[in-house]
């Protein structure tokens, strides 16, 4: 049985499967998307900003598993180098 642990995230005491703690970015499409600029909320993807605000408001973490607007950053970087 998987172990659930708690820790403080965005000022919330949240529960998470221990083996997934801190790994949401590894499973989230946004981190390989040209639309994702998390350090600049003004230029950041509106979907990502909305999800982030919802996460902070509700004390949840929601990686993006599927997205209609995803554009590969690694593919673009690769093309620019060629
Ligand atoms: S377009 Fe989709 S994958 Fe890209 S940053 Fe926005 S929510 Fe994430």
List the helices and strands and how they pair.
Layout: E1 4-9, E2 12-17, H1 46-58, H2 73-81
Antiparallel strand pairs: 1-2
Bound molecules: iron/sulfur cluster (SF4).
Number of helices: 2
Name the hetero compounds present.
Answer: iron/sulfur cluster
The backbone outline, from C-alpha atoms, is: globular
Our Rg estimate from Cα atoms comes to 15 Å
The counted number of beta strands is: 2
Along the chain, the helix and strand elements come as: EEHH
Rounded mean pLDDT score: 95
How much beta, percentage-wise? 5-15%
Strand order of the largest sheet: 1-2
Which regions contain 5 or more consecutive residues with pLDDT less than 50?
Answer: none
The total domain count is 1
Structural class by SSE content: alpha+beta
Q: How far is the N terminus from the C terminus?
A: 47 Å
* Sheet having the most strands: 2 strands, antiparallel
